[in-house]
Amino acid sequence: MSLDPLQALQAANRRVSPATAASVGTLLVAGATGALGQELLRRLAGSHRFAHARVLSREPMHDGVRGVETFLGPDLPIAQWPLTSADTAVVAFDPPRLYHGRERALWVPKPSDLPELSRWLRACGVRTLAIVQPHDQGRLPEALKRGIASLDEQAVVACGFERVILVRSARKPQNAGFANPAERLAAWMLSTLRLMVPASEQPVRASKVAELVDVALRIAPPGVHVAAPETVWQAAQPQQMQDVVRRWLGP
Length: 251
Prior knowledge:
This protein has one domain: NAD(P)-binding Rossmann-like Domain (Rossmann fold, 3-Layer(aba) Sandwich). 33% of the residues are buried. It is globular, with a radius of gyration of 20 Å. The protein has helices spanning 5-13, 18-23, 34-46, 114-123, 142-145, 151-157, 181-191, 206-219, 229-235, 241-249, and strands at residues 26-30, 52-57, 68-72, 88-92, 128-135, 163-170, 223-227. The chain starts with a helix and ends with a helix. By secondary structure, it is α/β, with parallel strands linked by helices.
């Protein structure tokens, strides 16, 4: 169906609301791989809330997604990377899917890169930083699920961002390699404990995590905001996203 030129002119001349105008800027995504990274990129770049969207890559590649360009991170320490410009950055820790050739060319952050990457992002002008951290069930005490849990996260907050949004998203237990049958037996016996993990700490779909990040980027006030795995799970329930995110972020 062809577009009516009159409708196009009306849309171009329509006044932009203050909320939309405040969102215009540049988005930079580090870790646009795996189901989560691709869903974050699809949702955030496809929303047209940002004038530009960039993804970090480790190899030269052609920009295949409309409105999304790549920024090459050279094979150097992050502190030696050339600077770019961005207002909002999203960092996701999701390994690339080997059967997606394009994902192999993208830059994949490691948790140990977080402090140095955050300092580089701040030097690029980033004011809002959203981080999606994989959360292993049972690894954090209750008090730390909703707060800063490591020195690396403290280093991120110390960079001086206006807003830091940290989302602890539960992930499926990783398959580990075992050196001998005894280790395999022990792992099998311990695997029965997974049945005791509360439903509120179970992994949720990548699309729901991306939606939570999108909503949080829209309405989060200045400051540091940490979403515990239970918050992510509650937000993923039908018709709960907006209410849960608003309660989490406060009035």
